[in-house]
Amino acid sequence: MQNNIRGYHFHKNNGILDEHKPICSGKINYDEIIYLYKKYTPNSKIVLEYDFTESKDKLLADIKYLSNKLKEV
């Protein structure tokens, strides 16, 4: 299946509604997801999908977090 995955869209939600909250807040362990991403599908795309009401600072913090995690060996 890993050869069929072209991309992911990351966001957090409350488990009931399809909210589009920043990934650095909430219950999903994105460290584990990024580990699996790098191991099995490193050429696929990652899209951050957020609600328009979220601040630019939260988006930039998540971009920095992802960038750092993707650079780790």
Can you lay out the helices and strands and say which pair or pack?
Elements: E1 7-10, H1 30-40, E2 45-48, H2 56-71
Parallel strand pairs: 1-2
Described by its quaternary structure, the protein is single chain
Spatial strand arrangement across the major sheet: 1-2
Mean pLDDT: 88
Structural class: alpha+beta
**Largest sheet data:** 2 strands, parallel
The count of domains is: 1
Helical proportion?
A: 25-40%
Structure description:
The chain is 37% helix and 11% strand. By secondary structure, the chain is α+β, with helices and mostly antiparallel strands. The chain has one domain. Strands 1-2 form a two-stranded parallel ribbon. The radius of gyration is 13 Å and the shape is globular.
Can you tag this structure with a few keywords?
single chain, 73 residues, alpha+beta, two-stranded parallel ribbon, 2 helices, globular
What would a concise description of this structure say?
The protein is of the alpha+beta class.
